[in-house]
Amino acid sequence: MHNQTDNKWKRCGRDVGVLSFILILFNFSSRYLGYVFYYISYWVLTGTFTGSWEEVRSYFADRPEINDSTTFVMLANISITVACVLIALLIAGVFFKMTVWSYMMPTKQGTLTALKWTPPSFVFNMISSTIIAFFTSFLSSMGVDVPTADFSIHQPSVIAVVMQFSYVIVLAPLCEEIIYRGLIIKTIAPYSKSAAVLVSALAFGLMHGNIPQAASAFCTGLIYAVIALKCGSIIPTVIIHGLNNLIVNSPELAGALGIPYNRTVLSIIEICVALFGFFVWFTDFKFLKFETSSDGEDKKLSFSKVLTNPMLIVYFSILVIVIIVRIVQANS
After folding, report:
1. Would you say residue 160 has pLDDT above 80?
2. Closest CA to 184 of 312, 33, 30, 323
3. What is the largest CA-CA distance in the chain?
4. Which of 203, 197, 191, 195 is nearest to 229 (CA)?
5. Do the beta carbons of residue 142 and residue 323 sit within 8 Å?
6. pLDDT digits (tens, 9 = 90+) for 104-144
7. Cβ 104 vs Cβ 235: under 8 Å
């Protein structure tokens, strides 16, 4: 029995360590593949290749109509995101025999769960975003500039709207759920379901790289993680994630398309969604509870073993440092 327990903790340490390594690699590849994208874009646009980053940087700095356009930015996001996920899954599968495919099986019940829990997730996102908005406003009043993400559509066009819709509503939710729900939960849940939910939400929040998005993404990430865990699939959370992004970004998309009265119509839709979301919260909150077969002490030890894994601590430290650096740069 003692040997079985020791083997369990060794497997736990190994699996969480490998997962953390893959997440660190995913984080760094998303940054450095950005440089690759700019080099390739320079090559395509000029017909010549250069190994000088300064030359590439100057080229795009002098052409804001390209560098700042939504079409170009979304093309970069789509290319980099797909490449990073493929690299992460390839390394996880080939070298460590880790896969998420069993977590990608759709079910009728999972789809119904997704449709039901989209409004409550929107409510949770709305409340957390409002709270963090007060916090960032307070920091601003103290002279501290808090970086935020910009999803405004610059140089509006049909292709720009289509690309932003494809990335924000379809591709980003799918890729993020594969990594932050599929890979994380499938790896950690056998040892501690509670730790799997917390690690998934923390990683999902912090990877956004700024306080406003990190806070709201962490809150909604908790719901996404529980739903993925209970459904045994990320398909419901892909749907919820995509629909939530659609609701949040619909004013920008509708405005870029020039749809009349879009603010009024969308406000009415958001109110209806929020009302239904509150109804689900009050009537079916118990759905988000989950049980484990472990006894109390074993459950606590499993939770502790996961969260104190050195590689996982390194991973979260990197994400926090990135946010701090961005705040310092914004205020320097």
Report:
1. no
2. 312
3. 69
4. 197
5. no
6. 887 777 888 888 888 888 888 888 888 888 888 887 887 77
7. yes
- Enter the tokens of residue 257: 């398309």
User: What whole-number distance in Å separates Cα of residue 247 and Cα of residue 320?
Assistant: 28
- What span, in angstroms and rounded, lies between the C-alpha atoms of 329 and 144? 11
How does pLDDT run across 34-61, given as a tens digit for each residue? 999 999 999 999 999 998 999 999 999 9
Distance, CA of 327 to CA of 161 (rounded, Å):
30
- 10 Å Cβ neighbour count for 36? 13
Cα(248)–Cα(72) distance, integer angstroms: 22
Which two three-digit tokens encode residue 148? Answer: 């935020």
CA atoms of 305 and 5, how far apart (whole Å)? 12
Count other C-beta atoms under 10 Å from residue 70's C-beta.
Answer: 22
pTM value is 0.90
| 273 to 108, 254, 267: CA distances (angstroms) | 22, 18, 10
